[in-house]
Design a protein that fits this description.
533 residues; globular; 14 helices; Arylsulfatase, C-terminal domain; alpha/beta
Length: 533
């Protein structure tokens, strides 16, 4: 009997050894050293939060984003997510470096990203991640920190785009840019042996100007009623006088051929009143079959419009409304292909058992005006272009259905990615890891710094500002004006309160907060008025 008990005890301890049932066995080792999470960063260009259903904005019922919404449902939507400088190259440079524009050296489009500087991609690659970027890049210097890259030169094209190769050559690919970017991303994922963690940046050109849809999506929104923004006919009163000098209005600056897709040789003798400066570069890139699809859609609709216009039936505000509808149908159609791309990537992760250990993020380089203030384009610190989407899924770490309200900014992405990968960010970054916000929440910042440095395009002046959860202060150095908004009572930012006696102490408080942030980030002095032509 005694011998039997000893034998059973030995057998049991043997099982423990073999199957690792106790704390220091095989399972425990796996728990201590699991495969680090993969990161899939899906990033588009100029996708406003108002055109993502999960954000719940005025276009929530028409935004074609079921797959981005799927990330949101299974993870978190950051409702107060902002950029540091609302323009393409600068936003991308901030994401890579974790720093404001003045510190990473990429202050305006046309600058060259210094590839020698620290980036999160280099750090992940060094620590053993497989890394790749495909699609829009727009930083002038070639990508560094990536095992594989294939990017669009400059802005890239929608139809039959050219991709820059790692060996310096260029390759033209037939088809639609969003689909091709997705295919390249999935091919790369498929080529990995998956024993190493990976980080993929899948970066779309769409829905950037000239808002050119996949041909299969032409007409998707023809029968859809697209609500008109409350501020479509903004008169720019009660704010900085620089607003009235803008060159981004649907009314006065939306090109007929380039933007509205009414080509010159469709017009006959009809004279249209708005600018027509840039021709039809995307149409010119198409092959005969693609043009036939394009013409079959736009041709009859343009014909009908031109005859109504000529008969005086569409004019004044109705003409602006017509252009707004044409703009939104095209814009939302390009979003539809981006969303399909998100769906394809999510399906790939599911089909390959990768979803559980992959962080998926959807974001875009800045917001965009979808007719608010009468505009298209971005740049201003007003809400629609200051906001950028940030939707994240990380099973087991981000509670499904979270709607986070903290003030996050693109300076935070690099330190977040490092913490996800189990690395420590260097202490000279401007941003903070958002990982603590994914679970119980934590102390977080109370204000954000903004700086816009461009000098010409769309005539938006340089400006600088601070935003808290409720107020926004903007300084326009070229006209030495301050604008102050109370977002709770004036969410559309139609009236600056800087001169209101009731807001005197708020103005003082925000000026000092802006100053504090500028000192903290070692921002350069404000430009002098004469610097802006
Ligand atoms: C291009 C666009 C502008 C746009 C800038 C910046 N013109 O110059 O309308 O504001 O890009 O956009 S276009 O004729 O090329 O379409 S950004 O996203 O690259 O910053
Ligand atoms: Ca952009």
């Amino acid at each position: 009997m005694y011998r039997t008990i000893i034998c059973l005890a030995l057998l049991f301890s043997c099982c423990i050894e073999i199957f690792g049932i106790v704390g220091n066995g095989v399972f425990a080792q796996e728990r201590e050293n699991p495969q680090r999470p993969n990161i899939v960063f899906i990033f588009s260009d100029d996708h406003a939060v108002n055109a993502i259903s999960a954000y719940g904005g005025p276009l929530k019922d028409v935004a074609p984003t079921p797959n981005i919404d799927r990330i949101a449902r299974q993870g978190a939507v950051f409702l107060n997510s902002f950029c540091a400088n609302s323009i393409c190259g600068p936003s991308r440079a901030t994401i890579l470096s974790g720093k404001h524009s003045h510190a990473n050296g990429f202050m305006r489009n046309g600058n060259k990203f210094d590839p020698g500087q620290w980036t999160f991609a280099k750090e992940l690659q060094k620590s053993g991640y497989s890394t790749a970027v495909v699609g829009k890049w727009h930083l002038s210097s070639n990508p560094v920190g990536f095992d594989y890259w294939e990017v669009l030169p400059g802005q890239g094209n929608y139809y039959n785009p050219v991709f820059l190769q790692m060996d310096g050559s260029k390759k033209k690919v037939n088809g639609y840019v969003t689909d091709i970017t997705t295919e390249k991303a999935i091919e790369w994922l498929d080529s990995l042996d998956k024993t190493k963690p990976f980080m993929l940046m899948c970066q779309h050109k769409a829905p950037h100007r000239t808002f050119s849809p996949a041909l299969r999506h032409l007409g998707t929104f023809d029968e859809v009623k697209i609500p008109e923004p409350e501020t479509l006919f903004d008169d720019y009163a009660n704010r900085s006088r620089t607003l009235a000098g803008n060159e981004m209005e649907i009314d006065r600056h939306f090109d007929w051929a380039y933007d509205a897709k009414v080509r010159k040789n469709e017009r006959g003798d009809v004279k249209l009143p708005a600018p027509d400066r840039y021709g039809t570069p995307e149409y010119n890139r198409m092959n005969a079959n693609q043009r036939a699809d394009w013409d079959a859609y736009y041709g009859p609709r343009n014909k009908e419009f031109l005859s109504e216009f000529e008969a005086g039936q569409i004019k004044g505000k109705d003409l602006v409304r017509w252009k707004y509808r044409r703009y939104m149908r095209n814009y939302l159609s390009t979003v539809k292909a981006v969303d399909e791309s998100v769906g394809r990537v999510l399906d790939y992760l599911d089909a390959n058992n990768l979803s559980d250990n992959t962080v998926v993020i959807y974001s875009s380089d800045q917001g965009f005006y979808l007719g608010e203030h009468g505009w298209y384009d971005k740049r201003w610190m007003f809400e629609e272009s200051f906001r950028m989407p940030f939707v994240i899924r990380w099973p087991g770490h981000v509670q499904p259905g979270t709607r986070a309200k903290q003030l996050i900014q693109n300076i935070d992405y690099a330190p977040t990615f490092l913490e996800i990968a189990g690395l420590s960010p260097p202490n000279n970054l401007h941003g903070k890891s958002m990982v603590p916000l994914f679970s119980e929440g934590s102390e977080w910042r109370k204000s954000l710094y903004y700086a816009y440095y461009e000098l010409g395009e769309h005539a938006v002046p340089q400006h600088f500002g601070v935003r808290t959860d409720r107020h926004k202060l903007i300084y326009f150095p070229m006209s030495t004006e301050w604008n102050l908004f109370d977002l709770e009572i004036d969410p559309n930012e139609m009236r600056s309160l800087h001169a209101e006696p009731d807001y005197e102490s708020k103005l003082k408080e925000l000026k000092s907060e802006l100053n504090r942030l500028r000192v903290k980030f070692e921002a350069p002095p404000y430009p002098r008025p004469k610097a802006n032509p």
